[in-house]
Amino acid sequence: MKVSRNIDPDEIGFDPARLARIDEHFGRYVAAGQLSGWQIVVTRRGHVAHSSTYGLRDVESGAPVEADTLWRIYSMTKPVTSVAAMMLWEEGRFELTDEISRWLPEFADVRVYAKGSAAKPYTVPAVEPIRVWHLLTHTAGLTYGFMQTSVVDGLYRAAGYDLHWPAGVDLAAASVALAELPLLYQPGSAWGYSVATDVLGRLVEVVSGQRLDEFFTERILRPLGMTDTHWWVDGDDAERLGALYVPDPRTGRLLRHEQLGAAARQRPTLHAGGSGLICSAYDYHRFTQFLLRGGELDGVRLLGPRTVRFMTRNHLPGGQDLGALSVGGFAESIFDGIGFGLGFAVVQDPIPSRVPSSVGEYYWGGVASTAFWVDPAEEITAQLYTQLLPSSTYPLRAQLRQLVYSALVD
Fold it and tell me: Where is the Beta-lactamase-related domain (predicted)?
């Protein structure tokens, strides 16, 4: 295990002995063969209070997790895409209430699933057009094929949109294909985790006139110094990439998922705004600090502070929480007491979840069990990296919150 920090934790309100419980606890997962290894970073007031690595990034080769290990962050790409969209919004390029069909005409006449089977679905016209804010809040009526909880999910899979998307399809073609599928519910009437951020990425492309990867590099990654963030890796970078695992359904021990894991070593045709990035903990640390500082880092401002505050408030209809509005199956977030902003889950009330946090804290994670949160009230950021599918296998995120907040003693 390697532990580092850039300040004595007690200077920023943490008990060092209590912070040490983080590594003791998560080390037990490795000892039990349930995780291959992990990396954890906790900061407060801009200082790293705890940064540790443990175990192996690749069990088969014996390569250890190191400070510069690269991780598939999957849906932790979504906040970056949301930032990209809001940068364009700040330039006056669109309104959040605009219909997306203004730029994506394939969404002009969407229909909504009402009843029937996958072989013979019955649909009705959408009574409300999909608007930009619907994409940012996952209230557009879109879904994911891998949910496997509805007829619409099955139609996504039949069209080739599961964990893997069709080979050779770019984001423009994917947007057209997704628009031809029925919506799961009327836009703005519910919350459903979905490909909405991928469609948002296509909107960024059309509005900006750049491919999404080009926009990311020129407008976000390079300005923030996120030079270790990629859409795919090869050469020495591929050697630094953590291997991807799933639990053996019989024993719970690790099985390598090379078929899915190998995708990170291939140049993509489609730059998925909802799940495409690979990065180091250092790079995403810089992204979380940019958010905590209200849209600025090291003299580079990408968003205004009021925009960041606006993004990280609950935008769900009627101020409701995910518990009241969510449809379909999803385990990425606790629902009760949690709202959703423009790209982030937002804590409205920490009590229903029975997990310590602050009102106004915002966060998200990825399907391979990575996670981050930003707590403006306590000036804390935290990140967790490992490569285990699915993220619901163990309660890693809730446990990290327990350990971090119980170590805060000022």
Answer: 23-402
* Strand (E) or helix (H) holding 325: helix 322-325
Peptide bond into 249 cis (omega under 30): no
Which stretches within 163-252 are classed as H helix? 171-179, 196-208, 212-215, 235-240
How far apart CA 72 and CA 198 sit, in angstroms, is 17
pTM for the whole thing?
0.96
Structural domain boundaries in the chain: 1-65, 91-209
- Burial of residue 138 (CB within 10 Å: 0-12, 13-18, 19+) is buried
Question: pLDDT 10s digit of each residue in the chain, 410 long?
Answer: 565 567 899 999 999 999 999 999 999 999 999 999 999 999 999 999 999 999 999 999 999 999 999 999 999 999 999 999 999 999 999 999 999 999 999 999 999 999 999 999 999 999 999 999 999 999 999 999 988 889 999 999 999 998 888 989 999 999 999 999 999 999 999 999 999 999 999 999 999 999 999 999 999 999 999 999 999 999 999 999 999 999 999 888 899 999 999 999 999 999 999 999 999 999 999 999 999 999 999 999 999 999 999 999 999 999 999 999 998 766 556 789 999 999 999 999 999 989 899 999 999 999 999 999 999 999 999 999 999 999 988 999 999 999 999 999 99
Paired residues of 149 in beta bridges: none
Q: Cα dihedral angle (165, 79, 280, 73), rounded to 10 degrees?
A: -30
CA-wise closest residue to 399 among 80, 121, 40, 6: 40
